[in-house]
Amino acid sequence: MSDLDAAQAPAGAVPSDLPLSDRVQEALAISLRGCAELLPQADWVKKLQRWEATGVPLRIKFGMDPTAPDLHLGHTVVLNKMRQLQDLGLAVIPLIGDFTTTIGDPSGRNSTRPPLTREQIEANAKTYFEQIRLVVDMDRAEVRWNSEWCDPLGARGMIQLAAKYTVARMLEREDFTKRFQSGTAISVHEFLYPLMQGYDSVALKSDLELGGTDQKFNLLMGRHLQAEYGQEPQCILTMPLLEGLDGVDKMSKSKGNYIGITEPANTMFAKVMSVSDELMWRWYTLLSFRSEADIAALKAEVEGGRNPRDAKVALAKEITARFHSAAAADAAEQDFVNRSKGGIPDDIPEVALSGAPMAIGALLKAANLVASGSEGLRMVEQGGVRIDGTVVSDKGLKVDAGTFVLQVGKRKFARVTLG
Q: Where ATP is bound, by residue (predicted)?
């Protein structure tokens, strides 16, 4: 089957002529859970059957370019899939793209992505490992860096690799097509990125590569190059891009609709509780480790009259416990209940300031509750600022010396001692 044929294969079609054991059916169901596409599914079934017959674990690859130091829940959608496959007994390979990051992934870009320095890459990769460990069992994973085989490739090897794909096929990629048609510059080195990502699959002899839906072209490149090098082509499994807190745009730090996986437990819990009831069920599918049967039963209870808040609390506690602890999740729930009743959380920052009397806008900024004095005044104007529980309505207020609790919005608090 060609890559283009594979791209048209329906993700839900199970070959009728293959007898599937219970183990293979379970593995297939776990593979398909929440996924956008599994291509070609028939080949993945054959690989699973071979794994069952021989006991040789299949090799599951997921490449990550350390372009930023912090991960959010959107990044964990694919990591969750990797952990589910790892728990089946398959061999998972978290691949750190320290070489490809120096090129810069052009996926979805309308301009050339600036490459990072080696120092930036190494610093980001260090924090990646610490955060990935919260989802994937790194002690049972085969961690690799693609500089292992990309650096030795050299100029001659790079030219030989580039000869295995045509410019016409490269320009079939949507983002390249749009940039070419609009006259926007495409640097030659950007064509190397999908080639190098595909070559990673050759070097690792990957059986399955995971990625977001925006990575489909690059994942199919891995299949093409493996065939060129005489290997059995990998299958590809794409996961949807997770909608953020607003339920509209994909989760992104730049849009402010994200939950960082290193955020405090109380913040993480409260943010999950803020999503809509409709989005909650999609998050259950993509972020929860509960079985689909359990989720379906819970949804049926809600449709039968149970308060959807109960389901949301369960999801918030599961996610918070994963990145902190069960005890932290319980405490975060109590903190959320306390806040919802207008109470003041126990674990608020203590801030000591001088300069009384201080203008309210400057005070809010000095207490790190707003980014600027003007933002603080806007919050006062909107009725979002309280001192010891009393709403502040005077933008000209000057606060005298003393100790008091400042609150901005529903979640930001500080116990301030102003001298």
A: 253
> Burial, 108: exposed, middle or buried (Cβ in 10 Å; 0-12, 13-18, 19+)?
exposed
* Secondary structure (3-state) at 42: helix
Is the dihedral angle over the CA atoms 155, 158, 164, 170 positive or is it negative?
A: negative
Superfamily designation of domain 3-239: HUPs (3.40.50.620)
From CA 153, how far away is CA 353, in angstroms rounded? 58
Q: Is 253 annotated as a binding residue?
A: yes
pTM value is 0.74
Q: Would you say domain 350-418 falls under CATH 3.30.1360.60?
A: no
> Using CA atoms, how far apart are residues 63 and 81, in angstroms rounded to an integer?
13
Question: For residues 201 and 144, is the Cβ–Cβ distance under 8 A?
Answer: no
Tell me if 3-239 shares its fold with 350-418.
no
Q: Where are the domains of the chain?
A: 3-239, 265-340, 350-418
Distance CA 203, CA 197 (A): 10
Q: Determine the average pLDDT of the residues in 347-355.
A: 87
pLDDT at position 143 is: 92
Rounded alpha-carbon distances, angstroms, from residue 399 to 82, 93, 348, 383, 416: 53, 57, 20, 17, 11
CA angle at 128 for the pair 124 and 134, rounded to the nearest 5°: 155
Q: Is the pLDDT of residue 136 over 90?
A: yes
Within 10 angstroms of residue 357's Cβ, the number of other Cβ atoms is 12
